[in-house]
Amino acid sequence: MLDARGIGGPTLTKLAAAYDRLAAQRLRALPDMAGDETRIAIDEAVAQALGLPDFGILRELLSREPIVCVTMDRLL
User: 45: Cβ–Cβ under 8 A, 6 or more apart, which residues?
Assistant: First the structure.
């Protein structure tokens, strides 16, 4: 969880611009998050603003979790 109270200046401006650009876009269901263009754009905007590496692999792994995809099939 990001504590936005400690963010200021250009970083906050980048995050606010990303929010303005992406807020109206629809999110696909959680089991489809790995290929969800909106979630990908959100993750990329956060990573870029905070200077983080690409964490798309985490979105992929999370989409396979049985509690998220409600099946065991994606584990294999």
Answer: 14, 15, 18, 21, 22
